Amino acid sequence: MQNDMEQEGNISSFGEALKSELNKVNDKQLEAEDLTDKFIKGEDDNIHEVMLKTEEAKLSLQLAVQVRNKVLEAYQEINRMQV
After folding, report:
1. pTM value?
2. Which one of 7, 23, 28, 31 is at 20 to 30 Å from 51 when CA atoms are compared?
């Protein structure tokens, strides 16, 4: 119970938590894009890091889409409930 209250103090709403996580996904996308650009320009020669960051960004985006789908399904299910 106290752990829940501590979490509420850190994040005041579900919307803010969601926005924060989406910002993290966006940051990963931007980082992967930046590394790719540097690799293409010849400024960085570490293909391993470029591939890892690109795959991490891809997986983060896929996870965000799946979370969105589950939230949407839950919302639709709540709307179908009879009171």
Report:
1. 0.73
2. 23
